[in-house]
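Hi F.,

I've been meaning to write this up properly since the lab meeting, where we talked about keeping a consistent format for the predictions we share between groups. The idea is simple: the sequence comes first, exactly as it goes in, then the structure tokens exactly as they come out, then a line or two of notes. No screenshots and no reformatting. I'm using this chain as the first example so we have something concrete to point to.
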Amino acid sequence: MKLSEIASILECSIADNDIDIVGINTLKDAKENEISFVSNSKYVKDLENTKAAAVIISENLASKLPANCIPLVTKNPYWSMAILSKYFAPPIEEETLPLPQIGTNSKISPKAEIANGAVIGDNCIILAHVYIGAKSVVGNNTVVYPSVTIYRDCQIGNECIIHANTVIGSDGFGFATNEKGEHKKIYQNGNVVVEDDVEIGSNTSIDRAVFGSTLIKKGTRIDNLVQIGHNCEIGEYSVMVSQSGLAGSTKLGRNVVMGGQAAAAGHLEVAPFSTFAARSGITNSIKEPGKTYAGFPLMGHRQWLKLQAKLARLIK
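Output, unedited:
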């Protein structure tokens, strides 16, 4: 899109320097032909170093922009980004893409649907009622059980197992809210990348990223009924037990274990080899590796056991 078109959609003005914009991205990752946004002063450092061609921004932060970056000043940059995200969302399916590529010795149920542009590796088993979206890739020796849905652009590695009714690449729970309390969908234009040797249980949902990728690293084991929000990163060989969940943009280090119904708030980082007992509630980043935690508010597991013992004595 021309930058002038974007400015018209967002009802703001720009200088005469009209340029082509090919995508929308974060301040850190935006390229010279992309647009970005900033809605919080804590991202000023990223703002000063961004390579974006233009940034949707509030008036009070506009002075922080690099000299070669064009400001699009709006009252609510987050709302404006939500409006714009729709224009850069890819189509759900693309009939003009080439027919799916199916690898050697792969067995595809006649009841499965593989969209144009998808690639299936060698020795895969794709069972009935599976849907694999446009430009998605499934690696070699991977088994996809019935009624799994893999949205467009997602990547599944080699030697993976995905159990029935799981959804990979559905939209993250993202929306902007204006001063009237109205909500505007933020289109999730990233994808999900599942690396090699990952097993995912049934009825699990892994949301695609807003920008970039939601990443499940190699060797991870995910149980049934797990929720992983957009832009999360699960470290190598981590374990997520049934009904555990992560809010968006939280990153787990390698070999993190989350017990049943354990949950983490968004935008956190969890140190490697951390273990969380069932129903743990993680509300702050965990920086020290190799510790075991329990409870809500979260505390060391031994401390939590002592607390439970004291409570039991009080009610006798």
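Notes:
The chain has a mean pLDDT of 95.
The two ends are 70 Å apart (CA to CA).

If this format works for you, I'll send the rest the same way.

G.
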